[in-house]
Design goal:
The protein is about 60% helix and about 10% strand. It is mainly alpha-helical.
Amino acid sequence: MEKRYFWIKLKEDFFDSEQMDFIHDMPNGAEYIYIYLRLCLRFANNDGIVERRIGPDVRLSYDMQKLAEIVHSTPDSVVVAIQVFKQIGLVEEIHNGAFIIPGVMDMVGSESAVAQRVRKHRALKRMQESQPLLQCNENVTFKVTTENRDKRLDTRDKSIDKDIEKKSRKKRFSVCDAIDGLPFGDALKASLKAWAVMRKEDLKAPVSEKALRLGISKLQKLCGANEEAMVDVVDQSTFNDWKGFFPLKGERRPPAMQDRRAQMKQAVEKGGWGW
């Protein structure tokens, strides 16, 4: 069978997608993104199906220990990562514990070994043929180079303008005002402000407009319209120094969590956070 080479291509906004942004805000989120990319690359030649093929007919699911070896991580991290991927639709279980990564087929490219050699040969030939032309026509070369330089400068200037505009929007955003404008009761707003203070002061990760929007969306998915449950989930994240919101675990409101919430609430009331 002719050998083929596979690769994956990421879209320009891959890391800005809501799914990647959600994972990145989790504890160990960067590791989970790494695990996802390793899985995509490893199973690109299998249509994104994560399963072991033993012979032509036998197909088995991977145990977490083996998957951890494949992605160079720990079994515990792989277990949590796969659960998160299933929750947000990055992977789908198909049969007997095996699963598929639907997005892989949009990333995959491949070519045969022969096609790779032909492509490299043609690229080398084009480079050799263009060399005399560049040497013999300096005026044309200078004109093309100048035009390319101007295009690069224009692209750079537009990029700088976008960065300035983006930073300006970030400066104008006030998380405190944004929370006050939410259609929630005072108890939930106070918890959200305490969580925002914790992120800014303890994690050095201030709540952006996008992070707040995603956080509220996650709260509503977890709790529906139950604001009392939302308060417990937010307080849990504040107590544990978590960037995002996760299902409630353990005792509903342990004393330590209440003390932590009171501490953050006092910090909010003192103000001076620049928000």
